[in-house]
Amino acid sequence: MPQSDPSKTEQATPKRRKKARGKGNVAKSQELGKVVSILAGMYGLYAWIGVIYDSMNKIMVRFLRDSMQFSATPESVYDIFKWLSTELAKMLIPLLFFIGFLAYLNMRVQVGKLWTTEVFKFKWSRFNIISGLKRLFVSTQTLIRMGKSILQAVVIGFAPYLVIKSEMANFLPLYYTDAAGLSVYLLETGHKMVLYALVPMTIIALADLWYTRWDYEENLKMTKHEVKDERKQAEGDPKIKAEQRKKMLQVMMRRMMQDVPKADVVITNPTHIAVALRYDAMEAPAPRVLAKGADHLAEKIKEVAREHGIPVRENVPLARALYKSVEIGEMIPEDLYKAVASILASLHKFKGKQRG
After folding, report:
1. Per the omega criterion (within 30 degrees of 0), is the bond before 94 cis?
2. Mean pLDDT, to the nearest integer, of 16-21?
3. Could you tell me which NCBIfam families the record lists for this protein (predicted)?
């Protein structure tokens, strides 16, 4: 069956699948559930038939044999009602529980773990008469469901015909059979009818399971543009990311310029690179880089340093080494200790400490 929108050529992304599941949109075959429920009921009845026989026997004996001695009073009616409810519960509840459990297991295997309230939310679109009529008479899904229903009706109607036709020779001897023998025959014949109907129903259910999953995947497909937009949302729009990066650099630059007046010295290249250093043994065991920059930013660092009386020293290899190997806020590496110490020792701030 062709895709309703030819532009949707891409497989659904995990985000698209998660969003669809959150709305209760999942791939599940209703026909498979019918087959599982029938099988569960048939074999549950087969396993529980002894208990059902005993309970039915008790009920028949009490109502047919003891009915002449029954005195209808509020207490006796209540007692018989309670007793009858208990017997019916013993017959039906385990069987219904078994059918319900297998129906739940079938749905859980198909759908997985899912709990959502989206399917219960009120939507005005559900009351759109025009859309409802289109779905009823024009929709491909409606035609497919109708075809499945007609096929199942034919199958379910044809199965009893085959069984009855094959059992015609056994009907006359049933006249001489007792109640127990007649019950056994009816149960066996009914079991055969169900099996005859289940074979084609199972084939229909498996085909419906395949079609349901295929149709679900087709409806979830996305256009290339949708995939691209989703990727942008996940990774961030490049323009927005560039703008954010620009703002972060501006913030870092302002903070860095605020730290330049705290420096002890600015080492330059002399025009292309500038690195501001601070050494305080109470803060760190080695000098730290407070600011660094190249070209225009280097000129700005030197300008701020001169405004605040920070010494500016030219040392090309040291400036390049500091700029390449040390990030802002980090201490200088050991291999640069000697070069930096010689510059700090020449500063007036550290001359008194050196003599001491």
Report:
1. no
2. 82
3. flhB
Say which range, 51-65, 136-150, 197-211, has the weakest mean pLDDT. 136-150
Q: What amino acid is encoded at 265 in this protein?
A: V
Q: What is the pLDDT of residue 93?
A: 92
Alpha-carbon distances of 71 from 63, 80, 119, rounded to whole Å: 12, 11, 53
Give residue-wise pLDDT tens across range 318-331. 888 888 888 888 89
Token pair 């995947």 in the structure block, residue: 217
% pLDDT > 90, the chain: 5
Q: 301 and 257 in contact (C-beta within 8 Å)?
A: yes
DSSP H helices in the chain: 14-22, 30-60, 74-111, 129-137, 140-167, 179-220, 224-235, 238-259, 296-307, 316-325, 337-345, 348-355
Amino acid found at 45: L
* 98, pLDDT greater than 90: yes
Instruction: Give the separation between CA 102 and CA 107, rounded to whole angstroms.
Output: 9
Instruction: Answer for the pair 293, 322: CB distance below 8 angstroms, yes or no.
Output: no
Q: What average pLDDT does this structure show over 332-355? A: 75
Q: How far is CA 223 from the centre of its chain?
A: 21
| Residue 168 tokens, joined | 């015609």
Task: Give me the helix-helix angle, 296-307 and 238-259, nearest 10°.
Answer: 30
**Class of CATH domain 252-355:** alpha beta
First to last CA, the chain: 92
In whole angstroms, give the CA distance from residue 136 to residue 149: 15
Nearest to 206 by CA among 31, 350, 81, 66: 31
Q: Which residue has the higher pLDDT, 55 or 124?
A: 55
Q: Which residues pair with 267 in a beta bridge?
A: 275, 313
Q: List the chain domain ranges.
A: 14-115+128-232, 252-355
Would you tell me how many other CB atoms lie within 10 Å of the CB of residue 52? 16
